[in-house]
Design a protein that fits this description.
The chain is α/β, with parallel strands linked by helices. The protein has helices at 18-29, 42-54, 69-83, 108-132, 156-176, 203-208, 218-229; strands at 9-13, 33-38, 59-63, 88-91, 138-144, 182-188, 240-243. Helix 5 (156-176) links the parallel strand 5 and strand 6. This is SDR family oxidoreductase.
Length: 249
């Protein structure tokens, strides 16, 4: 039986763990060949690649610092050189740094780097992918429901970064629309990953503000990304798909 992403090449940044790894596996299960970008987790990246190859996908891992636009552009170029094309870009790499706006001891360099990765890395990847992506391509950025409802203290910088990604996505959708390339954000709520453990100190609070009262699974987010990457979503662009367990309900 034909799979809906047969013949497609996908790049998933931050693909060595969590949502990124689940997305890489889900895309490969639908027939795509998958490249993953990673910052430091070489061993985990190799494990993901081995798993993708085990189910018959071509796969490779490339190291890149998402805060460095030159490295991001180089990552996209390496993927095209290795696989011959790029059809799907998933901007998943991101960091989460907290700090109250009135706190004199906030780690300002870390907050600035967060913006460089969460916004600058997305912008650099879209700029690099746009010229090399074929007509009908797909660009999906993993955002956060905190962009719309900053319920916790200390997340102004993170929320601003995720809000900025939505604005950039809408503009990019206009620019790339004539070529049939769709650009969307999939924003998530509390998902069980290394960055947000369901056993962490804020876990009970996070569960309590979700209508479903639980954390999401990376695979549930990956399913939404596969939808946006597939032919069924060909008329969806400049949009925000929310998978948050009812956090914004």
């Amino acid at each position: 039986m034909s799979k809906k992403l047969n013949g497609k090449v996908a790049l998933v940044t931050g693909g060595s763990r969590g949502i990124g790894a689940a997305t890489a596996r889900a895309l490969a299960a639908e027939g795509a060949d998958v490249a993953i970008g990673y910052a430091a987790s070489h061993g985990k990246a190799r494990e993901v690649v081995a798993g993708l190859e085990a189910i018959g996908a071509r796969a490779a891992a490339f190291q890149a610092d998402q805060a460095d636009p030159g490295q991001v552009a180089g990552l996209v170029a390496e993927v095209v050189e290795t696989f011959g094309t790029l059809d799907i870009l998933v901007n998943n790499a991101g960091v989460f740094v907290t700090g109250r706006v009135d706190a004199p001891d906030s780690d300002t360099p870390a907050l600035d780097r967060q913006f460089d990765i969460n916004v600058g890395g997305v912008v650099a990847a879209i700029r690099a992918a746009g010229p090399v992506m074929g007509d009908g391509g797909r660009i999906i950025t993993v955002g956060s429901a905190l962009a719309e409802h900053a319920i916790f203290q200390g997340i102004a910088d993170y929320a601003a970064a995720k809000s900025a990604v939505i604005g950039y996505t809408k503009g990019a959708a206009r620019d790339l629309g004539p070529r049939g390339i769709t650009v969307n954000v999939l924003q998530v709520g509390s998902v069980a990953t290394d960055m947000n453990s369901p056993d962490g100190e804020t876990a009970d609070v996070q569960r309590s503000v979700n209508a479903l009262g639980r954390y999401g699974r990376p695979e549930e987010v990956a399913a939404g990304i596969v939808f946006l990457a597939g032919p069924e979503a060909s008329f969806v662009t400049g949009s925000v798909l929310t998978i948050d367990g009812g956090y914004l309900a």
